[in-house]
Structure formats: structure tokens, C-alpha cells
Amino acid sequence: MGSIKPASLGPPSGAQALLAGVSLTVALLVILLVRQLSKQRRPPGFPPGPSPIPVIGNIMSLATEPHVFLKKQSEIHGKIFSIDLGGIMTVVLNGYDCIRECLYHQGEVFTDRPSLPLFQKMTKMGGLLNCKYSKAWVDHRKLACNSFRYFSSSQRMFEKKISEECMFFVDAIDEHKGKPFNPKHLVTNAVSNITNLIIFGQRFTYDDRNFQHMIELFSENVELAVSGWALLYNAFPWIEYVPFGKHQKLFHNAAEVYDFLQQAIKTFSHGRVPHIPRHYVDVYLDEMELKTKDPRSCYSHENLIYSVGELIIAGTETTTNTLRWAMLYMALYPNIQERVHQEIDRVITNGRAPTLQDKHKMPYVEAVLHEVLRFCNIVPLGIFRATSQDAKVNGYTIPKGTMVITNLYSVHFDEKYWNDPSVFSPQRFLDSNGNFVRREAFLPFSLGRRQCLGEQLARMEMFLFFTTLLQRFHLQFPPGTVPTVTPKLGMTLQPKPYSICAVRRQQKLPRNTVYH
Ligand code: HEM
After folding, report:
1. Binding site residues, as ranges?
2. Which pLDDT value is given to residue 55?
3. Is 469 among the domain residues?
4. Residue minimizing CA distance to atom 9 of ligand 1
5. Which residues bind heme per the record (predicted)?
6. Is the pLDDT of residue 512 over 50?
7. What pLDDT shows up at residue 452?
8. Would you place residue 5 in the very low, low, confident or very high pLDDT band (cuts 50, 70, 90)?
9. Is 315 in the pocket of ligand 1 (CB under 6 A)?
10. Ligand 1: which atom is nearest the Cα of residue 103?
């Protein structure tokens, strides 16, 4: 007699296995959904904000011009409100008063960076720019600030080096002989070389393919870092395993860039003599060696790579975009350009190269550069911050670890401080006698302990590049063309690619420029 096994003890049939699989998946999805929806609830006392879509929150609203969208929301919900980035409840600060209250008066509380999966993946929350508010950040920031001061402003030779780069730059532009060209590549390379001098003690020539490629990948990542895919990755890190999507491009670019930087650090630290540093990399390696026995030391080869990368891109992308916008606006407003030319010709006589000494005699140039920074909002949403402890602002409660967006665009378009903010007018930075006046609600470099550490360097570069360029050329668009001023979106706002003609001015300039 054949034995009969009870059905329940035998292997499941195909249909049963399928049913079990489906039930398990549904149960898992329900658990994930409940978990996600609970993350999407605003904690008690939290600032109000727009209603989120279940699961993805307000991510989709940030697809086009997020800074403009967020400013509009502040008109509905108040200067401090919150949005939901797929379960990441985020506070948005708007307007000068609110941003100053948090970043300056409560500076200590708003100095952290959020532990976003993207930052964790890219720099393990180390390096400098993305580093958590910790001893590691304090040490890295101090080291970078000291090196920048030592290798730039304290050395008079450095100004001469910037002037030399300015000459390489205008000579390269001259090669276009007044014909249309896209200035992006040249401006980027020239500006980046100033940071490269501090970091590596070297400049890269304008035809160095490897360097160009590295900068392009980096620049692409600045755009991708705030793309919908990046925001989704922060909310749902498991999409790392989805083989397509812009986040994959971001990871791929970062890996390539880090390889390049690792190689560059090796090359430029070759021949290093301890305690006689030639550049930032040498300073870092000295410090790392000095602290080898200190268990609390945060200096490492990995953090050196991250810091170098962050300094290069923070220094390049921002100043480059400012100068590209400045060129565009000069061609767009010939009357403003004419006044810039007049001031340059009045102050910088005999065709000598501009120097930083000239700056305080050139209020109009200063006003133009300030208006470009205000109007073009190079870093419109700052760099994401986080609260390092529980905070109270305007009666709201913000728990420790909350992500914070500083809408710097809303400061520069704050109607309380600016008349007709949507009009491009350098005049607003001049008094009735034509003297330059500082304006309070002007925060392109942000505020507080995390404020930009490259501000002084950026100001030097912008002035010297801009005046050297305008001293030699008249900028105009190719006949019959006017480029759009709608920006290309990313962490920074940059102009969409445009062509421009740099026509040599009639002013008599000697072939061999004199340096003072
Ligand atoms: C026009 C040029 C520039 C603009 C508009 C600009 C703007 C900014 C802004 C808005 C921040 C965010 C600060 C915050 O968290 O609130 C920042 C941070 C930073 N910037 Fe700049 N920046 C410029 C040039 C530079 C240069 C030339 C360098 C260095 C070579 C640099 C290095 C940095 C670094 C390292 C940080 C992060 C600081 C930290 O987290 O402690 N920037 N910058």
C-alpha cells in the first residue's frame, strides 16, 4: 500500500508559493508605508507648511526653481515653515531677519550639516564642507582657513599670481579675435587655477584634458546633487540598487573625480620636506603626521581627498558662475558696461594691469559685482544645514538633527530691504555721491560659523578678473542674438551656455603688461 503524505507537510505547490510570496511582499509594503507615513508627520510645535503628497512629500514641487517656490510658500506659511522631502521633515528659513536670527544669533544651534544618505555615500560626513559639526570640522576648517590666509592674502606675491592668470585668461580670449565663443571653459579653468595654486602650488594649462574632464564631472555633480533623483535617494537610499537614474551618474562621477584627486595629491606632494609646506596638501600632510599618535585625530588620506575636492569645487563653481553672469549682464546692459569702462580708464591709466589697490577707487565696479551676486543668487539655497540641538524660533520648536534650508535668494529679494528687487541695478550699492555703500541684507556668502571660508579670495578674484577683462574688451552678443537669463538649476545657479564676442577696445595697451 502506497503511503499518502498529508498535503500540509509536502512541498508547497507553485500557486501556494506564489500566494505566500505575494502576501509577504504586501505585508512588507504595508509596514514600509506605515513607517514612511509616520515619518511624514510634523512633530508637535514644528513650523507649518504645504501639504505633502503621501510617500514623496513635496519633492516634486522643487523640480523647477525651488528657491522661487520656497519664497512663494513663505508668503503663505510665514518666514519659517517646513516641507517634507519624502519623510525628511525640513525647515526652510526665509528673509533676512529670520536667517540672521538663526545663523547669527543662534549660530551654535544651526551649524551642523544633515546626515543625508548622499553626503554619507560621497564623503562619509568627513572632509570639510559636508562634515558634521564636530572637532573634525573645527580642525579641518581651521587648517583650511590658515592655509588660505598663509598662501594667499598674507603673501603679496599671490596677487601677482592672480594677475598672471588674468593675463593668460585675456590672452586666451584674444585668440577668438572678437568672434563668438562660449566663455564657460576658459573662465572655469582660469578661476580654478587660483584655488589650485593654493592647494597644489600649481596651475593647470587651459588644454589639460584630464583636468578639464575632472572639473566637468565635478560641475555636473553640483547640478545632480539637488536633482529629483538625488532627493529621492536621500529619502529612499535603497534606490542605490536601481541600476538607472541620475544618482548612478553622480556616484560614477564622484568615483572618477576621487581617483584623479588621489593621483594629483600623490604627484604634488612628491618631494615634500616636512614643516616647509609649499601648499595646502603639504600643510595637511604635516598636520596628519604630527597627530599620528593622537587617537582623536581626524586627519586622514581619505579626509584629505574629500577636503581637496570640496575646496576645488566650492572655489571654482561659485566664482566662475559669478563672472559668467557678470559678462552676460555687461553685454545685456551696454550703458552699465560703458560706465565700467569709464571708471577703469579713469583709475587704471597707462595700460598697467589692475591691482587690488585700485579696488577702493572703483565704487562702480564694486557696485556691479555686488549687484551680480545679489541678483544672480549663485548659491540660492546655501548649503543644507541641520540643528545641532533643540531650537526655538518664532515660537516654533525644531528638534535636534532637523535639516534646515537657508533660502538666500529670499534675502536678496526681500522687499523689506530692497526696492524693486527684480530689477538689475548696480546703483542700489551707491550713495548720492557715487560712493560704494554696504547693504545689510546681502548674504551671498551666507552667515555664521559655516559661512563661506573663501569669501576674501573670491572677492580678490572677481575684482581682478573682471577689471582685467573689461579693461581690454568690449563685450557684446553675436548680432541678432540675446541669450536667456533663465538660470540652469543646481546647487549653484549658472547661466545657460551662451556665446559672446569680446572685441578689443581701442585703448592703447602695451603688449607686455607691466606688473606693480
Ligand atoms: C562668489 C564666490 C562664492 C560664493 C557666492 C560662495 C558661497 C558660499 C555659500 C553660500 C556657502 C554656504 C555656507 C553655509 O553653510 O551657510 C559657502 C560655503 C563654503 N565655501 Fe564658498 N562661495 C564662494 C567662493 C568660495 C571660494 C573661492 C572658496 C574656496 C576656495 C569657497 C569655499 C567654501 C567652503 C569650503 C565652504 C564650506 C564651509 C564650511 O562648511 O565650513 N567658497 N560658500
Report:
1. 452
2. 81
3. yes
4. 445
5. 452
6. no
7. 98
8. very low
9. yes
10. 16
- Mean pLDDT for the stretch of residues 83-108: 97
Instruction: Tell me if 114 CB under 6 Å of ligand 1.
Output: no
pLDDT computed for residue 155 by the predictor: 62
Across the chain, what does the average pLDDT equal?
Answer: 93
For ligand 1, mutation pick of 113, 445, 449, 463 (most atoms within 8 Å of CB) = 445
* Ligand 1 pocket check for 379: Cβ under 6 Å: yes
**CA gap 367, 385 in Å, rounded:** 30
Q: Is the CB of 112 under 6 A from ligand 1?
A: no
CATH number, domain with residue 73: 1.10.630.10
Mean pLDDT to the nearest integer, 179-189: 97
**Which residue lies with its CA nearest to atom 17 of ligand 1?**
452
Instruction: Report the interhelical angle of 363-376 vs 301-332 (nearest 10°).
Output: 110
Q: Is the CB of 319 under 6 A from ligand 1?
A: yes
Q: Which DSSP string corresponds to 120-186?
A: HHHHTT-SSSS--SSHHHHHHHHHHHHHHIIIIIT-HHHHHHHHHHHHHHHHHHHTTTT--B-THHH
Is residue 307 scored above 90 in pLDDT? Answer: yes
Ligand 1, residues 153, 215, 318: which to mutate, most atoms within 8 A of Cβ? Answer: 318
378 lines ligand 1 (CB under 6 A): yes
State the DSSP code for 436: B
Helix (H) or strand (E) holding 294: none
At 310-352, the pLDDT tens digits run 999 999 999 999 999 999 999 999 999 999 999 999 999 988 9
Asked whether 306 lines ligand 1 (CB < 6 A), one says no
Q: How far apart are CA 112 and CA 385, in angstroms?
A: 6
CA 446 / ligand 1 centre spacing (Å):
8
Task: Report the percentage of the chain scoring pLDDT > 90.
Answer: 84
pLDDT band at 273 (very low <50, low <70, confident <90, very high): very high
Query: Is residue 512 domain-resident?
Result: no
The residue segments making up the domain with residue 20 are 14-504
Residue 516 domain flag: no
Note if the pTM is more than 0.90.
yes
Phi, psi of 99 (to 5 degrees): -70, -40
What's the gap in Å between 314 CA and the centre of ligand 1?
Answer: 6
Residue 515 lies in a domain: no
Residue given cell 505575494 in the structure block: 22
pLDDT tier at 507, thresholds 50, 70, 90? low
Cell 582685467, residue? 468
CA of 71 to the centre of ligand 1 (A): 22
Number of domains in the chain: 1
